[in-house]
Specification:
Oligomer: heterotetramer
CATH class of chain B: Mainly Alpha
Helix content of chain B: 55-70%
CATH superfamily of chain B: MetI-like
Strand content of chain B: under 5%
Shape of chain A: globular
Largest sheet of chain B: none
CATH superfamily of the largest domain in chain A: Dipeptide-binding Protein, Domain 3
CATH class of the largest domain in chain A: Alpha Beta
Shape of chain B: elongated
CATH architecture of chain B: Orthogonal Bundle
Structural class of chain A: alpha+beta
Number of helices of chain B: 10
CATH topology of the largest domain in chain A: Dipeptide-binding Protein, domain 3
Chains: A alpha+beta (536), B mainly alpha (299), C alpha/beta (318), D mainly alpha (347)
Largest interface: A-D, 79 and 69 residues
Structural class of chain B: mainly alpha
Chain lengths: 536, 299, 318, 347
């Protein structure tokens, strides 16, 4: 009898605990952030913004290395010399006040802002700029390649930096790159071990500094009192970034006010959020596009007619409508709309199964009967839908499309297989700019390469190479002319139907209506410059 | 977690009609087990007849109908439609076939690896036994799901590879089970007799020992089916199993995560399908274990 | 003499795969107060089943009681609830089991097991119970009681364990004791000692005994009266003298011959062994199938117990 | 007669040592198997190390940096040598030492797993006892349905619906994570052992403890389901075996009440196998967290390994695998010791 009593008491106690804990739940736990109540300090509530992220906040805390969404945070901690406004094609001076370049595009002079302090208390000068960029080049990871044109960096005085280039290049675009263009404190970098940054430290000039973090999970930023722009007006005191991998969870957090800003919701979610009066939905153009690559080194896609047939068989409208919920536009060539060098007059393939049939017949496949393999990044719901819709159309041509969602690394290795026959037939991939130039699209994706990196069409066309390279050299001298030349190159790519130009994506921003001052900049994908934001 | 039946359990199990009848009689005592047995037969029937009974046959292969996406359950679509307008009922029904096929293939393959290894180890003894069993130990010290995930990830995601991965995670259990049997078999009269008249070792192992030890392993394997189905679904959930647009339940649940706030039916039906299938297989397995284990067997 | 236990019309069946089998069919049996009654029969005859039925410890299913009355002190045990039975078991009726190896709980020390029973049945405090346990050890002639009480069953020998089981049976002053082949699983060398102990204790406590055995000779050492059980039925009943000296039923004769010590005739073991497949005949004497003297009537009619003199009864047509 | 229990001690030690040695061998085997598996897969760790959009020169440099230009057996040798110093290499993605990342992620997972296991024992044990007691009756059917159901549920699916019900509809429990944002930002979160619930409890910080407990409930229940079912099933089958034993019948014959027979006499006998299962189930529960941590944004090893596997981050995968195998081997050893402590088993 004694035993049974003990067990019962234990269970009862447990239940009581659970009940008491849940009963007082709603008051304590999911309080709306920042505006909420139960905090120890009563004087003035610090303003906090909460960002729910899809993946780990910062992959590598070294600003020279980070080459993924971590720049969302780093751009609030570090600053670049300039910030590019692609929609107006202008530059906002940040750490540099102004700049000039020689006519041949080989010498670029930047003047550095006076009185800027790093978070470690030291002051910004031309040496720091030189040090930062040389450090990035030396480490050679991430997006360090953007500095390839740089021959040497000179610092004639404390506030002047001169770049001497190997070949003409648009340095203003390079120094304002979203990646690998951050300026760090030399004092902090030199007095600490090499992996000091990677271990989760920072030494930038940005408006916010790192308060604390749990690696791979969350980051808390707090305002840097000595920020050079000062703290007049309304600003946030703290920013809280948290990884919330489930789409549904991020949406629910946003709806309940547990998050202020989130990304990568499905179009169905966005549709549902429209009814919520507390949530703002902003549709912005972006420089991110979805491209399909045909394996031109393998039967049957080495045949231009087959490639064109497959281009006509693609359900562009359905994909935009159902896979993207309308938040995209069918692409015209590989360079997205809004970016200089985009060809508005380029030819566009349209969904036309009859035409596709004709072309297939011409190519010698009147009854279809092909088997193709398409790969995409596993876990990407949109790419998955794209593939499924495409498969359904190709089935009508008696072409069997096998779809394989693969982790990026394995998909990549498959595409780099030595034997072209081992590779996939169609490779789906997003591309977005590092430096805001058409060359990042054309060179990486369609230029011949000594080794396969991202040229998944496997084209080796010297004529096309030359068109692109000439255009790039021109970019450091006369951007308008260069843009024309880039369009010429794309004409050839489109005509050859090297791949599917699926859509240019819109970034749909979903955030709490009380978050004000947020402005999307497609050159800095997903970055929120929190200094400009405030809560109302 | 699996509790392997003790070796002696199977001394009694001989594939005789009477044994089957007796087992059935004992199972019949527990109504819940009996319901499960009937459901298992029903599921097998559904799996076999799937192509005939699905209302939207094209939706299980390549067809899409995005205009009708995410419709709630109705008369035309009993379980509603998914994000590309496909009939979820058809896909769930067809998924029965895929799940059962995958599970059977995985367990079959695990048996194909595990049984000969175990028989050879047990029948040969000595160094061969040591080596085989130490390798088995190594594989047994991976948590099975982790091992399956690892292998599926390394082989690349596909249903076939998921099946292979599960087989690799499962075979050591069978090796261990059959080895125990084979060891006891080694000294039996008929084996000695066979050896005495110069039968080659290979023939003794596969001609005498395997046929006489296979019954318990088959029983064990049938008890494992539920766990295997769940593991396969978990792999697909992680994106390491079936590929779209295959109507595999785990994959459907995984995809539905993105839509379940707007379309609860999309998650609930494939999830229920997994649950019910695994449940009835486990219930039957549990019932079988109770009935076949001499320690709990009661007439 | 008052009847302490009176069994009437008791039918116990087992429901199995093959169907319902009758394992116990007793028309009438009574044990008087202070009497030692022996029950003898081959294994499977239903002796243990009877013991379990009295204590209501039968595994149900597959067993079930079809009909009957077991009156103990004038009250029908079969009608008692589980709670009421708990007040009877151990306190009024106790039992010595046949297998000392499996009767004690392996995960408690013997002391824990005895004191728990004492605490519960006699409401003793822990210290009192411990003291009483030591006394009990002395009673069953186990030396070094403290040591024995601190041991787990597997650390003791079979004889020691059986003595503890006997101690448990006598611990709470039950008036009725069922001893189910208490020496069956013991070495021959210690059988005598244990048996003697039981006999002494019975004499000292004047308890009423139902003594079960498969060996008439052994039973005769303890009992006044004896019943021969065959396939669930009493085939012969009488005082020890009557049955042992003048066995009347053919089965009893076989049983007596089966005692190896006697070595009077060559024993045909196949006659004794009960085959599992052997089905009960639809009608007729249950022994007819093996009876060497059977006649036509034996196959057609079931014999009832009939009085053949003194207290002697047999169930045989002949 | 010398006491048997005194004799057992040196045997026990020998037994443990032998099992430990075997365990080390097995772990070494796991290391080798995993290492080979990771290396035969077509992939390019060097390219991962440098990051996306790397140039061929960068990749070549990384190859040298990571020692990938050496023959495989030398790489393995170096790996094993480093292993002994606790060096598991660096993650290809985050460039952090894997051992640091494990330290970072493990406490949350261990806390989740252990606490769920305790819950599993508290619920599963009575469930199994009731089921065995009422065998083939409706209470048994119900309890069996529940316990077999618990091991048959796709946990990832359950997690989604628990969130839907308790966060979205009822609004009584948080969606995920370990703590609320406000608590994180404005309270000093104690850090003693790394286990949040424990730390807040020992430092007497009830606000944080309550918040952490609230956050624990949903993932805790989801993770506990499987072991609950397991313990209930195991207790049931062990009890069924034991309830048929002679000593149970004997105990009843002495007039002991049914509750004592069941909860003390029988349960103590079935505790051995049940605790063994509980111990071993921790290994399973650990892998189950791989599926559900992401759903609950739980900052543990599960979501870490899930992302590592999907991005083929080999050092991270190996680190977690070795840890899991180690945990498995140790738990097995503990289970064996528990069995060996059973007075019936003589070593």
């Amino acid at each position: 009898m004694k035993q049974i009593k003990q067990v019962m008491v234990l269970i009862a106690g447990l239940l009581a605990l659970a009940v008491s804990v849940t009963a007082c739940g709603p008051g304590a736990s999911p309080t709306p952030t920042g505006t909420g109540s139960p905090t120890p300090s009563t004087t003035s509530m610090p303003q906090v913004a909460v960002v729910a992220l899809l993946s780990i906040p910062v992959t590598d805390w070294d600003p020279a290395v980070e080459f993924s969404n971590g720049v969302m945070i780093l751009h609030n901690v570090y600053e670049t010399l300039l910030r590019y406004e692609p929609l107006e094609d202008t530059f906002t001076p940040v750490l540099a006040t102004d700049y000039t370049h020689s006519d041949d595009g080989l010498t670029w002079t930047f003047h550095i802002r006076q009185g800027v302090k790093f978070h470690d208390g030291t002051e910004l000068n031309s040496e720091a700029v030189k040090f930062s960029i040389e450090r990035t080049i030396k480490i050679g990871k991430g997006a360090a390649f953007i500095w390839d044109p740089v021959d040497k960096i000179e610092t004639p005085d404390k506030l002047t930096v001169v770049f001497k280039l190997k070949y003409p290049a648009p340095m203003d675009l390079i120094v304002s790159s979203a990646y690998a263009a951050f300026i760090v404190s030399p004092a902090a970098a030199q007095s600490n071990p090499d992996d000091w940054f990677t271990q989760g430290h920072e030494a930038g000039t940005g408006p916010y500094k790192l308060e604390s973090q749990k690696m791979g999970e969350e980051v808390i930023l707090t305002k840097f009192d000595d920020y050079w722009k000062g703290w007049q007006g309304k600003h946030f005191d703290k920013i809280y970034y948290k990884k919330v991998p489930e789409n549904a969870s991020r949406r629910q957090m946003l709806e309940k006010g547990d998050a202020d800003w989130t990304m990568e919701l499905t179009s169905e979610d966005i549709e549902a959020l429209k009814a919520n009066p507390n949530i703002a939905i902003e549709v912005n153009s972006s420089f991110e596009n979805l491209l399909g690559f045909f394996n031109t080194e393998k039967e049957p896609l080495n045949n231009k007619l087959v490639r064109q047939a497959l281009s006509y068989a693609f359900p562009y409208e359905d994909v935009v409508k159902y896979a993207m919920g309308g938040y995209a536009e069918q692409a015209k060539g590989p360079v997205p709309k809004g970016l200089w060098g985009h060809g508005d007059d380029l030819f566009q393939y349209n969904y036309d199964l009859e035409k596709a049939k004709d072309l297939l017949a011409q190519a010698g496949y009147p009854d279809g009967g092909l088997k193709l393999l398409a790969t995409y990044n596993s876990g990407d719901e949109t790419e998955k839908k794209v593939c499924e819709l495409y498969k359904s159309e190709l089935a009508k041509l008696n072409i069997e499309l096998e779809i394989r969602g693969m982790p990026w690394e394995t998909q990549w290795e498959l595409a780099k297989a030595t034997n072209p026959d081992d590779r996939q037939d169609i490779f789906f991939m997003y591309w977005w700019p590092d430096v805001t130039t058409p060359y990042t699209y054309l060179f990486n994706l369609y230029h011949s390469q000594p080794e396969i990196v991202f040229n998944f069409n496997y084209i080796n066309d010297p004529e096309l190479d030359k068109l692109m390279d000439d255009a790039n050299l021109q970019a450091g001298i006369d951007r308008a002319k260069a843009a024309q030349m880039f369009v010429e190159a794309q004409k050839k790519i489109v005509d050859e139907a090297y791949g599917l130009f699926v859509y240019d994506k819109n970034y749909v921003r979903t955030f709490n209506k009380s978050l004000k001052g947020y402005k999307d900049n497609p050159s800095y994908p997903h970055v929120i410059f929190f200094y400009d934001c405030y809560r109302e | 977690m699996r509790k392997l039946l003790p070796v002696e359990t199977f001394e009694a199990i001989k594939p005789r009609l009477k044994e089957f009848k007796l087992t059935f009689y004992l199972l019949n005592r527990n109504r819940l087990t009996m319901i499960a047995v009937i459901t298992v037969f029903l599921l097998v029937l559904i799996a076999i007849l799937a192509p005939l009974i699905v209302p939207y046959k094209e939706h299980v292969i390549s067809g899409t109908n995005p205009q009708e996406k995410l419709l709630p359950p109705s008369q035309e679509h009993l379980f509603g439609t998914d994000e590309l307008g496909r009939d979820i009922f058809s896909r769930v029904i067809y998924g029965t076939r895929i799940s059962l096929e995958t599970a059977l293939a995985a367990v079959g393959l695990a048996l194909l690896i595990g049984v000969p290894l175990g028989a050879i180890a047990g029948a040969t003894g000595g160094v061969v036994d040591e080596v085989i069993m130490r390798i088995t130990d190594i594989f047994l010290s991976f948590p099975p799901l982790l091992l399956a995930i690892l292998i599926a990830a390394f082989l690349g995601p596909s249903l076939t590879n998921a099946m292979l991965a599960i087989a690799v995670a499962w075979w050591p259990w069978y090796t261990r089970l059959i080895r125990g049997q084979a060891v006891s078999m080694r000294e039996r009269q008929f084996v000695r007799a066979a050896r005495a008249i110069g039968t080659p070792h290979f023939k003794i192992v596969f001609g005498h020992i395997v046929p006489n030890t296979i019954a318990p392993v088959i029983v064990q394997a049938s008890m494992d089916l539920g766990g295997v189905i769940l593991t396969a679904a978990s792999l697909s959930f992680l994106g390491l199993g079936a590929q779209p647009p295959t109507p595999e339940w785990g994959l459907m649940v995984s995809t539905s995560r993105n839509y379940f706030l707007n379309a609860w039916w999309y998650s609930i039906f494939p999830g229920l399908a997994i649950f019910i299938t695994v449940l009835v297989f486990n219930l039957v397995g549990d019932g079988l274990r109770e009935v076949l284990d001499p320690r709990t067997r009661k007439y | 003499m008052t009847e302490l236990l009176k069994i009437e019309n008791l039918k116990v069946n087992f429901r199995t795969f093959e169907g319902v089998t009758n394992v116990l069919n007793l028309e009438s049996l009574s044990v008087a107060k202070g009497e030692s009654f022996g029950l003898v029969g081959e294994s499977g005859a239903g002796k243990t089943t009877l013991a379990y039925t009295i204590l209501k410890l039968l595994p149900i299913p597959p067993a079930f009681v079809e009909s009957g009355v077991i009156n103990f002190e004038g009250e029908n045990l079969l009608k008692k609830s589980e709670g009421e039975m708990q007040k009877i078991r151990g306190k009024k009726v106790s039992m010595i089991f046949q297998d000392p190896m499996s009767t004690l709980n392996p995960v408690f020390t013997t002391g824990q097991q005895i004191t728990r029973v004492l605490q519960h049945n006699q409401g003793l405090h822990k210290a009192q119970a411990k003291k009483r346990a030591v006394e009990l050890m002395n009673l069953v002639k186990l030396p070094d009681p403290e040591n024995i009480l601190s041991k787990y069953p597997h650390e003791l020998s079979g004889g020691q364990r059986q003595r503890i089981i006997i101690a448990l049976a006598f611990s709470c002053g039950a008036q009725f004791l069922i001893a189910d082949e208490p020496t069956r699983n013991l070495d021959v060398t210690i059988q005598a000692g244990v048996l003697q102990l039981i006999a002494e204790l019975i004499r000292e406590t004047n308890v009423t005994v139902l003594f079960i055995g498969n060996n008439l000779e052994l039973v005769s050492l303890i009992c006044d009266r004896v019943g021969i059980l065959h396939r669930g039925q009493l085939v012969e009943l009488g005082s020890i003298k009557e049955v042992a000296k003048h066995p009347a039923h053919p089965y009893t004769l076989t049983l007596l011959r089966a005692i190896p010590k006697e070595k009077r005739e060559k024993i045909d073991l196949t006659q004794i062994a009960l085959k599992a497949e052997e089905r009960l005949a639809e009608k007729g004497c249950r022994y007819a199938g093996r009876c060497l003297k059977k006649e036509k009537i034996c196959l057609e009619e079931e014999p009832a117990l009939k009085h053949i003199g003194g207290t002697h009864y047999i169930a045989c047509h002949l | 007669m010398p006491s048997a229990r005194v004799e057992r001690k040196p045997k026990m030690l020998k037994f443990i040592l032998k099992r430990l040695a075997l365990g080390v061998l097995v772990i070494l085997g796991v290391v080798i198997v995993t290492f080979i598996m990771t290396r035969v897969v077509p992939s390019n760790p060097a390219a991962q190390w440098v990051g996306p959009r790397a140039t061929p020169e960068q990749i070549q440099a990384a190859k040298r940096e990571l020692g990938l230009d050496q023959p495989l057996y030398i790489q393995l040798g170096i790996y094993i040598k480093n292993l002994f110093t606790g060096n598991l290499g660096k993650s290809l993605k985050t460039h952090q030492p894997v051992i640091e990342e494990l330290k970072n992620y493990l406490p949350a997972t261990i806390e989740l797993v252990l606490l769920s296991t305790v819950i599993a024992a508290l619920i599963g044990l009575p469930l199994g006892v009731i089921s065995a007691k009422k065998k083939d009756r409706w209470l048994d059917h119900f309890s069996r349905f529940f316990s077999v159901g618990a091991v048959s549920l796709p946990t990832f699916w359950v997690g989604l619906f628990l969130q839907l019900i308790f966060y979205r509809w009822l609004g009584v429990l948080p969606l995920g994570g370990e703590l609320s944002t406000n608590i994180k930002l404005f309270y000093q979160v104690p850090h003693v052992t790394g286990f949040l619930l424990l730390d807040s409890l020992i430092t007497g910080n009830m606000v944080i403890f309550k918040d952490a407990l609230l956050h624990f409930i949903l993932p805790g229940i989801t993770v506990a389901l499987y072991p609950i079912g397991l313990v209930a099933r195991m207790t049931r089958s062990a009890l069924l075996e034991i309830l048929g034993e002679d000593y149970i019948r004997a105990a009843r014959s002495y007039g002991l009440p049914e509750s004592t027979v069941l909860w003390s006499y029988a349960l103590k006998n079935s505790l051995g196998p049940t605790i063994t299962v509980l111990t071993l189930s921790i290994g399973y529960t650990l892998t189950n967290t791989f599926l559900i941590e992401a759903i609950f944004s739980w900052p543990g090893i599960g979501s870490y390994i899930a992302t590592s596997i999907l991005s083929l981050d080999y050092p991270a995968i190996m680190g977690v695998t070795i840890f899991a195998a180690l945990a498995y081997v140790v738990l097995n050893l503990i289970a064996d010791i528990i069995i060996a402590l059973d007075p019936r088993v003589r070593l």
